[in-house]
Amino acid sequence: MKLKPLFSKAANAAAIRAASSGTPLLDVDRLSVRFGGLVAVSELDLDVAQGSIVSLIGPNGAGKTTAFNCISGIYAPSAGSVRFEGRRLERSFAASTFWGAMGVGLLTGLLFAAAAVDVDRLWLAVIKRGMITGEPFTIAGAQARLRGYFRAELAIDQMAGKWRVVSADGLDVLAIKRNLADANSLRDDLQAAVTARRTGPGTVPDTSDLADVAQKIPGQSSVLPVKEDVLDRLAAGKARIRRRGWLGLFAGWILGTAGTIAVWQRGRRSAHVVAQAGISRTFQNIRLFSTMTVLENVLVGLDRSIPGGVFGMLFRSPTNRRGEKAAREQAIEALKFVGLAAEGNRIAGQLPYGDQRRLEIARAVATGARLILLDEPAAGMNPSETGELAGLVERIRDRGVTVLLIEHHMNVVMRVSDRVAVLDHGVKIAEGTPAEVKRNEKVIEAYLGPDA
Description:
With about 450 residues, this protein is an alpha/beta fold. It is about 50% helix and about 15% strand. The protein has two domains: about 10-90 and about 270-450, Rossmann fold (3-Layer(aba) Sandwich); about 100-250, no CATH class.
């Protein structure tokens, strides 16, 4: 398998076509980000043409990194939109999304239904009662007891050495017998009376119909040792159990589906969605895995492009092995591009500061992104390293990759930028070529100072 080339001819051709059409690669439209009452970015408009370098500058706290975080999916915009290649940076709602949510909802509904009919009593009725009465466990027997539970049929269980005739859910104890045969006989008679009431008023047996039952229950003053209101409640038990089950199923289905869609909506524009669209970034504070090697740090950025998933990785499928080989080759190519080819097996935390910055850039470009966001890549570098960094940014642009840059080193900004936008307190106060921005009075007052 072959991964996407680091800098492909197709990407270069796309850059030429986009530049000729005048369509911006990145279109930030009236973007606002608020944190409570604090407005970090206010109605920012910014177009980034494909194949260009655009710098975002301004004093500390101007909202530059907040804008980056919003573009890269870390923050959700409070207002406005971000479009990449003419499309919003968010997942579309597809049929698979709907059916996936319905599937999760169904599973949730089944769990709710099980809870509604009481799992403990279901276990007692289907499994434990068979053990109590000494029946050998069989699937058919368990299925029969399960059907009996949902039909609210009376059952037998045991306590303190005596046999009890109970309701299906075990809540009503109807009679207690010392002998299992007597308990079974009484259960059958009571079940006949309950079934008659459940079927309809015309079938309720009278005293003469149950005269033989009275003979079976010596010492009882009435035909059945259960009050009429108890029989009526037991007769309604089947409908009650099923009603709880269906209510739990539908309530769980609705809540599960709605919850899944809500979670999907919250992750609709997450960072990984933005990365998969073709945008990668570096951070103001270095975020390397300091105990991993230089090569491993770059491979981390390529993990999502290796096919096979978790099972492919666990079982080392041929597709996964080919994907890992291609990713390794692409990572080595990225390290060569930034000048770190000889450091591949070195621990990342042992690199000099400037090389760690370049390693972050290597990880970003290795993904094959069409837009790279660089957040103060020259921070902490000496003048020599700063000059090398500027050259690296230009070489990225020369390969057809677009760069959006935050930088305080004005010599880097003026050297590499095609256009410069200036933020102050979250508001864009100027935009234009480096020369135009450098002469802008608002920029001089807010950021550059009179000696610029």
